[in-house]
């Protein structure tokens, strides 16, 4: 039987992925007693936040994300200072698409309206600047110099260190098994029972497992993502003069293809498909979890067409998970019946860069503080299929 812990925490955060850690960071910064509970021993690679390099940039079709990125860059820089760890490498981000592509135009609009430095590159300029990319379908480019690489694993470790230095508590290897709503909210794990004034659920692809007993189910779809690395034919040819990129090529694939210059594995560029197959998060690493490799075939065609200097078969394949919502926007909201239970979920493959502000918003929701951002795009009530039947 789980033993009871005496202290009343200001908040318990379930899940020490990047969103849970940034939530914990904001609680700790504001001198609140916070406890983070993580089912696996840290560090681990079983969720969505592990890896050496994730993309950061200000380029979005939706202006609300671009607005949030201003503060995200500041908090990432603050964390670099506090931890004494370099977490960001500026490479620029290139958006590659035909100039009549609606996402291309929307991104240009957003960057212009928000006053974000960028350049619209015609095919000739693009080709001159990046001779190692073949513009297979006559693409143009948007150049966002703020783009770059976030060192994800280092960021998680830095955050966890700073949270502890600020007095926050992190218990790993402790799986949450039950949540009893109320004031205080009671949380039982495999080893103990805790109480807190509020609870934040940032459990990534596992989120709905917690919400079922709390009477709601959100339209969250865990997807298995094959993370593919492609070998340079000539070592170094895609390392220096090569940016992070996002390509929209509807003729080839309904979802984006994105990539990151060679870094974590010398001589290998990371090129991934922004979609995957449905998966049960507890079975992600079973050999039978995803026999369908259509995504990898799409990537092979893309690499063959656009990167003549890369081998068109992946040299390494790893696994990660997205948790997608139907509109690919996040869910940042309170439980409809339990105001001290806050949910941060559905980061749809683009949540890492935004996590500094996501954590701030989840903190503000938990503490009934004035909200720094308009949360209309993130409310769960936007979904028709949001299931409150059993409330
Ligand atoms: C291949 C890939 C590439 C990506 N690239 C980018 C990118 O370039 N840029 C970008 O901004 N974003 C990117 N993302 C998205 C980003 O990584 C995610 O949005 C983000 O990591 C989500 O974090 P999270 O904390 O919500 O989830 P997670 O990292 O999954 O964390 C949830 C945590 O909850 C824990 N948990 C679950 N159940 C329990 C329980 N019962 N008890 C205790 N703990 C529990 C889990 O173990 C896990 O650690 C990428 C994602 C993938 C998979």
Bound molecules: flavin-adenine dinucleotide
What summary fits the major beta sheet? 9 strands, mixed
The average pLDDT score comes to 95
Give me the CATH superfamily of the largest domain: FAD/NAD(P)-binding domain
CATH topology of the largest domain, by name, is FAD/NAD(P)-binding domain
Q: Helical segment tally?
A: 8
Tell me the total number of β-strands. 20
Low-pLDDT segments, ≥5 res: none
Structural class from helices and strands?
Answer: alpha+beta
Q: What is the overall silhouette?
A: globular
CATH architecture of the largest domain: 3-Layer(bba) Sandwich
Q: What is the CA-CA span between the terminal residues?
A: 29 Å
CATH class label of the largest domain: Alpha Beta
Give me the strand/helix succession.
EHEEHEEHEHEEHEEEEHEEEEEHEEEH
Q: Could you state the oligomeric state of the chains shown?
A: single chain
Radius of gyration from the alpha-carbon trace, in angstroms: 21 Å
State the domain count.
2
Strand content: 25-35%
Question: Helix fraction?
Answer: 10-25%
Primary descriptors:
single chain; 391 residues; alpha+beta; FAD/NAD(P)-binding domain; D-Amino Acid Oxidase, Chain A, domain 2; nine-stranded mixed β-sheet; eight-stranded mixed β-sheet; 8 helices; 27% strand; globular; binds flavin-adenine dinucleotide
